[in-house]
Design brief:
Length: about 350
């Protein structure tokens, strides 16, 4: 039985068109700024998101760390949501390498943070007891909040508070194009009130590797220095950027298919006795659902799902995540639902 892989949209593989473009990419030494494919990707990414400049990085984690290092000094404090990927899944890099303290404010079910909570968390200057607040972090779409999207208004409400206090806003936009497609809003509108953002080429856009960090020219010039310090300076990486250029041309509009599949998946899971999910809450390609305690733990069900050929991720004590992507067809969704029912019956 071939497993149906719903662990993440990071499992996506390059398209044939990407592989052809990679094979014939024009390349140069990017440390000298001479790789034409990288330069084109960075310029196109910045323009698409309404920023002055862009920087290719090896991952979303690297982008988020570079932004933290670029905005912060040792001993500063950054603010993010309790469910932020930057808090949960990036190896505490901001603390380990940036000497930066993280302060958490509640995320709501859609991944938003309350501007009033942000205002209350921003440190007043002039008190020697207090660290300086160096950055506010948003995430759109929001991974651990079931792929929830932030509207331009949600983003502006936090941006206004941050900017009134002179604090920059970083957007972890790993799946910003999912948000853009779900809201039918240009990505630049979602980026309008943040100072910099990162998006991932390697998730639903299906590239083999990479993210792009965009912001002002001054920010990117500084970020490039931090990237070099982290060992992220690249040479003829136009081979990778070529895939990104194909992704920008061919992989954004199709994200609506992944969202439809996720909605169908959630509707099917809601009909399986012992599982709890609100299909109406699903906006993009990520579905978190709860395992009723009388059925067992999430770990029990994950083991049964693996036995039945369904791969999932992000186990909480009672929660499981499924993520749709370009390799998951409508037939795979129906088969995954059938196999999930069988796994649940095994636990009964
Ligand atoms: C919102 C967000 N921001 C940043 C990252 C980090 O990107 P990478 O470092 O994996 O390229 C991720 C990766 N998310 C991955 C996943 O969802 O499967 C990993 C394994 O957690 C992310 O979801």
């Amino acid at each position: 039985m071939t497993a149906i892989d719903l662990r993440s949209d990071t499992v996506t593989k390059p398209t044939d068109e990407m592989r052809s473009a990679m094979a014939t990419a024009e390349v140069g030494d990017d440390v000298f700024g001479e790789d034409p494919s990288i330069n084109e990707l960075q310029e196109r990414s910045a323009a698409l998101l309404g920023k002055e400049a862009g920087l290719l990085t090896s991952s979303g984690t690297m982008s988020n760390l570079i932004a933290t290092l670029a905005w912060s000094n040792h001993g500063d404090e950054i603010i993010m949501g309790t469910e932020a990927h930057m808090f949960w899944n990036e190896s505490a890099g901001q603390a380990a390498l940036g000497g930066v303290q993280t302060r958490l404010v509640p995320n709501d079910s859609q991944g938003r943070i309350n501007p009033d909570d942000v205002a209350a968390a921003i440190r007043p200057s002039g008190n020697l007891h207090f660290p300086r607040t160096s950055m506010i972090c948003l995430e759109n779409t929001h991974n651990r909040c079931s792929g929830g999207v932030l509207t331009p208004e949600d983003t502006k409400s936090v941006g206004d508070v941050a900017h009134a206090a002179g604090v920059p806003v970083h957007l972890d936009g790993a799946r910003i194009f999912n948000a853009s497609v779900a809201l039918e809003v240009p990505p630049a509108e979602l980026a309008r009130d943040v100072d910099d953002l990162s998006f991932c080429l390697s998730k639903s856009l299906s590239c083999p590797v990479g993210s792009v960090l965009v912001g002002s020219q001054d920010f990117i010039d500084n970020a490039k220095r931090w990237r070099k310090m982290l060992g992220g300076g690249m040479r003829q990486a136009g081979v990778l950027a070529a895939a990104g250029l194909v992704a920008l041309d061919t992989m954004i509009d199709r994200l609506a298919e992944d969202h439809q599949h996720a909605k169908r998946l959630a509707a099917g899971l809601a009909n399986i006795d012992g599982l709890t999910v609100d299909p109406e809450s699903i906006q993009t390609n990520i579905v978190f659902f709860e395992v009723d305690e009388d059925l067992g733990t999430a770990a029990d069900l994950i083991a049964a799902l693996n036995r039945n050929g369904v791969l999932v991720s992000y186990p909480g004590k009672q929660s499981i995540r499924m993520v749709t992507h370009r390799h998951i067809s409508p037939e795979d969704i129906e088969e995954a639902l059938s196999r999930t029912s069988a796994a649940v019956r095994e636990l009964r």
